[in-house]
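We treat protein structure as text, and this decision shapes the records that our systems exchange. Below, we set out a record of this kind in full and without editing:

***
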Amino acid sequence: MNRIINTIILFAFLINFSCSAQDDCEKLKNKEISLSHINDHKGEFINDIEVLMNCYYDSIDIQILKGPSGDSLESMLSILELTDLSKEPEKHSTYNIFIEQWNEMRKTEEYKLARQIVIAKDDIIHRNANIENWENDYPLLQKMNFTNDDIKRIKEIVIANENIDWTYFEVFQEMVSYYQSSSTMECPIPSYSDWFHFPHNLEAYFEISEGIECSRISNKPILLYFTGHSSLKSREFEAYVMSDSEILKILNQKYVITNLYVDDKSKALPQYQVDSIRLIGNINKYYQKELFDEDIQPAFYVIDSQGIQLDKSFYFNESIDSFKSFLENGIEKYYEQ
């Protein structure tokens, strides 16, 4: 979440400094400073830093060096922590220490990625956001390091506001608001968690409507796993396929897992009973038949928060690669919608 908000906030920087004469730049670079002087003359320090940036770096570098908050003082004090000045407030140095630190930063892969993001942002930020230009805009959003999930949400905002003649500036503002409001929403606490536990300590739901609600809030696909307490093939699959480290990573990060036992004899909570069906196992068996017209376990289905199946079903198979492919295809189809 912080990554995406920081990325978007970069669009707010509009740097308009005039170039200084080269000899003035060299004079400023060699100007003496100390931490105590900076703290006593913060306005002067910020002005000097911004002039110094304009002397030696382009507008893309300047946006990155000022950081996501755009606060020159905050960014430069964090850089000072890498120098000896932070340890001795009265020790003197020159502004050249910032040039040295900036030049080291610019050699890193993270800095190269940051430049790519800012260049793409500058290219798209004032474009009209409409779906007709989506094929041209999509690559720029990818270069801004948005995930498929992020881009899916951006596309939804573009479609919803085409008639308002928004630019991507307004789209990104709306996206920040969306994430800030979504971050206050929490998935429901799983019912029956005292009775059931998903293998390998992964979090899961044991009631289908709760999994669907969490999918809606978290914007993740749902993995429905129909199984039975007495299903030996289910236990074998959990032990030898689900235990794979890559499978566990996908399940933990990319899915809302909903584990449904079709042979459980416990009575369901009243709000989850279906007509005259009272037992958890019978309710889950009803859902499998109603939604997929099947009665086979173990069985896996990938659905969205509307209950729509996104890909073919997956049944007992000892191939880790096959199950991994099934999971990855489900994720891809979810974000293609």
User: Anything to note?
Assistant: The chain has a mean pLDDT of 84. The two ends are 22 Å apart (CA to CA).
